[in-house]
Structures are given as C-alpha cells and as structure tokens.
C-alpha cells in the first residue's frame, strides 16, 4: 500500500487507511479513488497529489 501527499497543503492519503470520513474505505488504492475526489483539507484535485515514500 502506498501513500500520496497533497502538493498544496501536505495532507497524506494512505491507501491502507483510506479516507472513511470522505466515503473512501480502508484499503482503497489510489487508482480506485474517484477522479472527482478532492483533498479533505484544502479541496485540491487528485492531480495535485504525488506518491511519496515514508
């Protein structure tokens, strides 16, 4: 499972954790996150996220 960081605000989307408050269940891979999903912190689009190594 990978992690993706919002380049605007630094929010981390963790595939293992998902984003349950936004309707994305744990274990949801980045490519399976809906294309219209936005960052819960700043509203940035999916295109504004980049995979990171932690």
Walkthrough of the structure:
The chain has 54 residues and is mainly β. The protein is built from no helices and three strands. It has strands at 3-6, 12-14, 49-52. Strands 2-1-3 form a three-stranded antiparallel β-sheet, with no helix packed on it.
Write a brief structural summary.
By secondary structure, the protein is mainly β.
Structural class designation: mainly beta
* Strand numbers in spatial order across the main sheet: 2-1-3
Low-confidence stretches: none
Q: What fraction of the residues are assigned to beta strands by DSSP?
A: 15-25%
SSE string, helix = H, strand = E? EEE
Could you tell me the number of beta strands? Answer: 3
User: What is the molecular shape?
Assistant: globular
Helix content: under 10%
Q: Quickly count the helices.
A: 0
Please report the distance between the alpha carbons of the first and last residues.
11 Å
Q: How is the main sheet built? A: 3 strands, antiparallel
Radius of gyration: 10 Å
Q: Mean pLDDT, nearest integer?
A: 96
Which features characterize this protein?
globular, mainly beta, 54 residues, 3 strands, 3-stranded antiparallel beta sheet
Please write out the topology.
Blueprint: E1 3-6, E2 12-14, E3 49-52
Antiparallel strand pairs: 1-2, 1-3
């Amino acid at each position: 499972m990978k992690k993706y960081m919002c380049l605007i605000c630094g929010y981390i989307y963790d595939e293992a954790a998902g984003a349950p408050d936004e309707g994305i269940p744990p274990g949801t891979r980045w490519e399976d996150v809906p294309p219209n999903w936005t960052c819960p912190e700043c509203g940035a689009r999916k295109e504004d996220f980049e995979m990171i190594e932690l």
